[in-house]
Amino acid sequence: MTDVLQLLLSALSLGSTYALVALGFVLVLNATNAVNFAQGELVVAGGFLAVALSPMVDLPGIVLLPAVMLGAGLIGVVLSLVAFLPLRRRPPTAVFISTIAFGIIVQNAVLAVSGPEPATASPLLAAGGTRIGDTAVGWQSLAMIATAAALVGLLHLLLERTQFGRRLRATAQDPEIARALGIPVVPLILVAFALAGALAGAAGLLVANQFFLSPSDGANYMLKAYIAVVIGGWGRTWGAVLGALLIAVFESFAAAAVGHLAAEALLYLVLLAVLLFRPSGILGEAAGRRA
Amino acid sequence: MIGAEATADPAVGAAAALSLSGVDVVRGAGRVAAGIDLQVEAGTILALLGANGAGKSSLVQAIAGLLPVAAGTIAIAGTAVQDMPADRRARLGLGLAPEGRRVFPGMTVRDNLLAVCRAGRAARHERVASVYELFPQLAGKDRTLAWQLSGGQQQMLAIGRALMNLPRVLLLDEPTLGLAPAVVADLLERLTWVAGSGTAVLIAEQNAAVVSVAHRAAVMRVGRIVLADDAARLAAAPELIERAMLGA
Predict the structure, then answer these.
(1) B1 domain residue, yes or no
(2) Min CA distance, B246 vs chain A (Å)?
(3) How confident is residue B6, by pLDDT bands cut at 50, 70 and 90?
(4) Which B-chain residues 178-237 have CB contacts (< 8 A) with chain A?
(5) What is the pLDDT of residues B38-47, one digit of tens each?
(6) Domain of B19: which CATH number?
(7) Does B102 contact A at CB distance below 8 Å?
(8) Please, are residues B50 and B208 in contact by the beta-carbon 8 Å criterion?
(9) ipTM
(10) What is the rounded (10 degree) CA torsion for B222, B225, B231, B235?
């Protein structure tokens, strides 16, 4: 029983960061129809920004969150200006390639600045933890879950309660008509990429304490986000969160049972099975479009 | 109330709200509209009639910027728009209630209306209230998701959404399709109110009943305008419309 709780806690903390990455991915997908393969590298960029800032301030990691989100959000804006806007009238594959290329540039920039060694950042609130019954509960895990939940909640308010959110949802549901009714596209694109970057950066800060972060980790986060979006239903915002939590739970429990390597293989088998038997995801596809 | 935005420029007032001259529309390999000349004056309704496949919908889409114009000019209040993207045309005063309604299905009625509105926050909510005055049925559905509405209510929402930026020109593509006759009569009456407040209204329809509320009527057949006249005159001679639509 203790083991199960322990596993669940680590799965949720990991899953909540996957969720942030996947949400950013879906935001861009819905606003622009673009598949942003640089999203994973933005996690790494945010994580290393946190690593770089950590020694400078003698404060808990949570105070770095706004700076890290801002920095990664700016990288997201540059991404859209360089790798998306000039290519948005080209076939989607052009944007696949340009975002992958941008991601490689980010990865190498991180490598050049920080070196290849894995690094860690300050904990969000404090190191250590407490015990609930027989279960050891790390403060960092709890803080990760709480921070991610707060960010998801803020994003929910942004999407549901603001004019930006309405425009983004309208564009996601019928891009042609949204445009014909005068919804301006370019500002929407810039903000969506900025938010995607900020969410990825936040995820980077969250994972950079409990796990060693190395400059080549981007592909892993990208793949997890992609799987989360496929499982949750392509283009479904809350499906992406659910998908992220599901794969983290699956990963953690499978790893505990059969080891990390086999767990990873099993995850891809599950992905294949979902694509074969339920190609529109567990919740169904949002708008019947797919890259 | 909902109506055309007042124009400060007197020169703009001189041009028709919507004016097409020599417009050709090509869709795939086929020319679906050729040499179309049309004018819709502020405060009037033009009924653009035609059977299925006559080219009305393609023409409406070309006016809105959803299909490219192969030749000719389209002007909104004197400004040539045929080379502008759809969103700029909307900002110049075009409102579209598209074929098949195309409401944002997963959004509430209020959010459908608010999403497209470019006015400030207070004005946005006032305009929602104006749309609810025009279509009281929508008022009770404020928080209902658009896909859950009836066909008639969805049509009202599509029209209300097109009115949220107080357009000079309202384009309606087959607004009566699939609606019960009583609902159609009610809808058409409300469109006369919209025109009465100064908006130029173009209704593309197969249903000749719209002639009853129109000021002018034009009939399209295989991509050309084959008949255009005062609506009152054509309403008195429905056999003329029928013959023009069917080419008999």
Answers:
(1) no
(2) 31
(3) very low
(4) none
(5) 999 999 999 9
(6) 3.40.50.300
(7) yes
(8) no
(9) 0.89
(10) -40
